[in-house]
Specification:
mainly alpha; 8 helices; 158 residues
Amino acid sequence: MPKPGDWHNHQVETPTNDNDYFERMSRVIFMSGLNWATLDKKWPGIKQAFRGFEIDAVAAMSEPYVDTLMQNPDVIRNRPKITAIIGNAREFQALKDEFGSFKSYLDSLRSTGGEEALKAGVAKRFAFMGKGTTVIFLFSAGESLPEATREWESRHGK
């Protein structure tokens, strides 16, 4: 598990709105099992195919559109990841209704149980977000995770 200093600089700034958080989460999902160079090369095509990661546009994507994406050479053609991202867009919509914003959702998780509740809540609510992927996403979104950082340092040295 990389520590915060290992992220590409363009991936560490705090998102400014729900679409930014959603794009960051989607990027981490696509990155799973790949290297950064491969993802960086494909990202412009992915971003275009996913309509700039505008939550409502992605949430409205249908199964025929998924089939179109699976034929698009500019996209990482992994059906489980693609359908997870579309489902996650719908979950972002539900969170907006429930909490007002994704950041408010994160703050509510942290306030109820600290870092562990934050990681567990995101992993439970969103598809394709396992423990490691969730930590990577939260780091990439600028969230402070001192326990995860200490764990990484104890395994890999400072």
